[in-house]
Amino acid sequence: MSTESGGFLEDVSFSEQRLRSIALYVALYGTAALFLLPYWWMFSTSIKPREQIYSSVPHLLPSEITFEAYRILLSNSQIVQWTINTVVLATLTTVTVLVIDAMIAYSLTRLEWPGRRIVFTVIVASFLVPGIVNLVPVFMIVAKLGLVNNLFGVVLPSVANPLGVFMLYQFFRDIPEELEEAARLDGFSRLRIFTHIILPLMRSALAALGLFIFIWTWNSFLWPLVILQDSSLYTLPIGLVTLQDNMGIVNPGIVMASAVIASLPLLLVFLVLQRHLVKAVEAQGTVK
User: Fold this and answer.
1) 8 Å CB contact between 93 and 158
2) Is the Cβ–Cβ distance between 101 and 168 less than 8 Å?
3) How far is CA 46 from CA 17, 50, 241, in A?
4) Of the chain's two ends, which shows fewer C-beta atoms within 10 Å, N or C?
5) How far is it, in rounded angstroms, from Cα 50 to Cα 68?
6) Could you tell me the pTM of the whole model?
7) Rounded to an integer, what distance in angstroms lies between the CA atom of residue 267 and that of residue 271?
8) Per-residue model confidence as pLDDT tens digits over 151-204
């Protein structure tokens, strides 16, 4: 009798645990759906007829699918050129930041040189200075270099990124020094150790940092607006504002279509790199 009662209680406990799991998944998927709702509204508005956009009754699903907004956008604007500019700018900035910040972080954690602690203190203290404070002096430096209205003028101030140095510094500290000692015994030079041992071990951390830098550069508005003066050099954030002022009043679907084009590459990049992002968080969280 007691055995049957115990089995019955175990079944009840298992059922309650399963119900809690189901409730948790329902809550998580429901929250995800709420976050996705604005994106769906953006996409559905971009393919709605103009009459339905101005309808007093909101429609999550368009009664008729039309790509007229995309046709007008691609034929009457420079959004293709703006997209190319943004991709080039974000890729160039990301690669440059990863290379420079990785070398800086490695030198701070593995090399002995005078003033190393002072440099790291200055890098950490730079987080306390708002970026807007440096806008005028940095612009004057870029202007002296003749990089105004040039994509390299947008990239240059982001090369030594304090966030990237600080983030990679934490990961470099967690790599055992015995690996480098064994490599030196095998005749590896310092550069070969860095490129063939350290960087492969830092793949997930570099991918996570690259994702942050790529998204930050893609969405950057103020600094490109200050540096870039020719409309053919505009990035997507600047171009979207231009489109909203010129074409958004006539057809809001055009603005939504441009927002879809601007958001889609970021979604694809995140889907490709999310595995490395999770690995980087797990690796940092499990270090004792």
Assistant:
1) yes
2) yes
3) 43, 9, 17
4) C
5) 9
6) 0.81
7) 6
8) 889 998 888 778 888 888 888 888 888 888 888 888 888 888 888 888 888 888
